[in-house]
Amino acid sequence: MAPGTFLRGFVALVAILLSASSVAAAETPKRGGVLRVGNLGEPPALDAHWTTASITETLTNHVYEGLYSLDASNRPTPMLAESHTVSKDGLTYTFKLRQGIKFHNGKEMTSEDVVPSLARWGKQSIYGKALFAQVADWRAVDTYTVEMKLKEKSAIVLISLAVPNNFGAIYPKEIAEKFPPEVKATEWVGTGPFKLAEWKPDQYIRMVRFDEYRSRNEQPNGYGGGKTAWLDEIRWIPVPEVATRVAQVETGELEFADDLNLDAYERLKKNPNARTIISKPYYWLVAVFNKKEGLMTNAKLRQAWQAAIDIEPIMKNVAGGHAEFYRMDSSLAPVEIAAWHTKLAGLPWNEHNREKARRLMKEAGYKSEPIRFMTTQEYKWMYDFALLTKQQLEDVGFTIDLQVVDWATLVKRRNNPKEYDAFTTGIGAAYDPTHHVYLTASWPGWTTDEDIGRLQAELARETDPKKRMALWEMQTRQFYEKVPVIRYGDLFGLRAMRTSMKGFNEKTERIRFYNVWLDK
Fold it and tell me: pTM of the full predicted structure?
C-alpha cells in the first residue's frame, strides 16, 4: 500500500460516517415550535359535519377523527374503530371501538359519543345522508361496541365513514346532542392530535398539541395510521391576497401556504429556502347551476353553456401557461382514483360549438336575461376561469352578470336559491361514485333529477364491482345529458413550504400537519 493511502482512506470513511450522521440527525423529528400556515381566508365553520368547504376540511381533520380514514391507496382503514365484522347476510355491521381514547376535555370516548355523533352526521353531511338512507337501526351494544343494521346490502358503509371531507367526526355526546344537525356547532372538542386553543377571526386560529392523544400503532399511511403532534402549535393565518401568501413563504413569515399563484412557480423554485409542491389531484374546475330557482332550471340553457365553452384556452390561462398544472379530461373521477376513472367516447365535452349553443339558447326561450355568476378572487383560479367563461358565453349571446365576492360570502350565498344562477368552485377527488356531491339534492345547486337519483341509489346498493362500474359509466353519460354542473379541466395546485419544515406528506391530496416537525 502506498504511503498515506491508509490515512486518506480512513479520513474519507470518517467523513462519510459524519455526513451520514448529520443527515440522520437532520431527519430525526424534533418536538416543539410554531408552524405558521397561510390560509386564503376564514372558514365558514369548524363543524366537520356542516359543510364541504375545503378550508373547513383541512382545519377540522387536525382536531377531530372518525371511525375510519383512508390509506395511501384510498382504501378505508380503521382510525377510532379497532375492527369491524359483517353478518353473513351483509346487513349488520358491528364496530369495536378503541379503548382509552380521550377527548380534548379529558373525557373517554365511548359508544355513547359515537352513536349521536354519526346520527347527526347522517342527517347533515352529504356522505352521511347517502349512507344513513340505507340504515334501519344504529345503536350502542355496549361501552365499546356499536351496531349498524341496514335495510339492504350496501357498497358504501366503510368508504362513507372514511372520507376526509364533510366526514363522520366523533364529538362528545353532549356537543352532538346540543347542536341540531342544521345548526353549526360552536364548541369544538375532538380526539385529534391537536386541540383548538383560540380563534380570533381575521387574525388566526391556534391549535396546540393534545398531550393525551393516543396514536394508532401502525406507521403513517395516507390519512391513516400513526399520528404524532411534534409541533407545539399550528397557527392558521388568513392571508386572502395570493401574492402576499407567496411573499410570506419567501421571507419566512409563513412556513407553509396553499392555493398559490401559478405565476410564482418559477420564482419559488429558485428560492433556496422554499420547496414547491404540485398537488395532484387537486380540483376539476366547475360552474355549478342553481336548479331550484331561476334561469338555469332550464336544461336546454345548461346544455347551451356546455356547448359554448372552449375549455383548453381557459385551462391554459388558469394554469399560467404551465402545462404541468392542468389536464384535459372528461372523466368525473381523476386518473389518480383509478378504480373510477372513465374513458368514454362521444361525450359532449369541450365541444366549443357556437351554432349548437345558439340553437339550444333559442330552444330554451332565452332572451338575454342576465345570468348571475358568482366567483371570488381569493381563489385566483376561480376568478380567472369565471372571467374567461364570461367572455366566451357573451360571444354567443349570453348576458353574464359576474358577481365577485369573498369566499366566505360565496359559501353562504350558494345555499340560498334566490342569490345566484351559477357559482364557481372546484370538485376534489371523490372516492366512490355515490360521493359526487353535485349529483345530490343536498348540496348547493340542488340536483333533484329523478334519473340521476335512481342511478345513485343503484350504485349505493350494488356490491359487484363490474356492475358498479357499468352503472357509473351510465351515470357519466347521464351527467353530460342533464348538465347539473359544467365540468372544465383538471387543475393542479401549487403549494410551497420552507425547507425547515420536515415530515410533510406531499402525496396526499389534502393537507395534514401531524407527523410534521420544524428543523430550526
Answer: 0.83
